[in-house]
Amino acid sequence: MECPLVEKVRPTVLPASSQLEKETESINETYGQRSSAGGNFHYVIRRGETSFCFVCFFPSWTEFSLVTDPDPSEKTLEGVKALISKHKKQYEALLEDQKDLTSSRDERRDLTTQFKERTKKLTVDLEKDESFYKDEIENQKATLDSLKEEENNLMEEIKKIQAEIKEEDDQNVELKEQADVFCSMPEKKFVFKGLTKNAEDRQEFDMKSHITYPMDGGTALITFEEEDVASSIMMMKRHKVELGVECRIIVQAHPVHLMLPSLVEIDSEVCPRRILLSNLPKMNTEILLNKLEIHFSKTKNGGGEVDVCDYLPDSGTVVIVFIKENVAKHLVETEFHEVKLNQTKHKVRVTPFLNGKITNLQTKMSMCPRTVLLTGIPDIMEQETLQDLLEIHFQKNSNGGGEIEAILYNPLGQNLLALFGNTL
Fold this sequence. Notes:
Blueprint: E1 5-8, H1 17-37, E2 42-47, E3 52-57, H2 77-183, E4 211-215, E5 219-224, H3 227-236, E6 238-244, E7 247-278, H4 285-296, E8 306-312, E9 317-322, H5 327-332, E10 336-341, E11 344-375, H6 383-395, E12 404-410, E13 416-420
Antiparallel strand pairs: 1-3, 2-3, 4-13, 5-11, 5-12, 6-7, 7-9, 7-11, 8-9, 10-11
């Protein structure tokens, strides 16, 4: 063989063995033809489906060479087959690597898809959590505001209760002081002179009434001893009163309504300027008052300047009023004082004086059960004479009257204030 064969095969993907053998035979045939043609340079390219072969022909080794000498084994057909087998193994290894890479790529794609879905789900969950926690924060804020408002209300109630407790403490102190006063009240002997009654028959309110009632002119007030008589007179309404021969007047009877107290609450307190003196001897009232005033006006006896010294005949006690306050308090601390009376010293008991103040007064309109108002009385004679004639008329049982306790006539042209005492 005149021209050596140098070939360089660089397949991207090696072809099958049978195809390579065919290509080798084609190269040999071509080489033989080209070598006999002369010493010119020729090349032939054979393409397969997935590879190509580049074959170079040179006139002689001495003229030109592009590559180094191949391994001796590659110059033979067995070497080429070994090389093909080697590349086939490399190809198979590459296929396995490609398969592994494809599988790894698919796994990575699956993981990527899973991570995307998980990320999307976590994003949705995060948005839900953010919305939930935002609502929860708003709810907690509203609860906090409600608790703060409740705390403020409780603080107000605490302050109110503390004020009430302070007021109760003050009242307790005052009541204790009053209790101490009641314990030191002047002694008075009582003698029972009456009848016993059931507890249900007791009166809820008992007081001496002192009520003024305005009377128009030409009217009269008559109070009977019996309630039935007054009721009968008011039922008859019109009454003819004989005043003499062929002289009579017609009067009308009406009930009398008065505003009376139904509930009275009195608050008492210790007077800082008054003392109550008891355990006094029987003597001239004026001399007794002078002796007491002189004794308690002296500072050496613990007294002070006296404003008023008054005797209370219903209890037989004396009230002394001082100009300055707290003098009475100092004197009360010593219960018994020795005072010179009738040339001898007598132990006088000094106790606090209570002032009463009405704190609650409730009234109601009540009809007088025994008093009748007569109207329409003309002014035709003297006041006393006409009043006597009215009393005579309404005392007679034949006229529906009865025993009269009191009568008052007010002529026309005059205005009087009638006084109601215990005759109601």
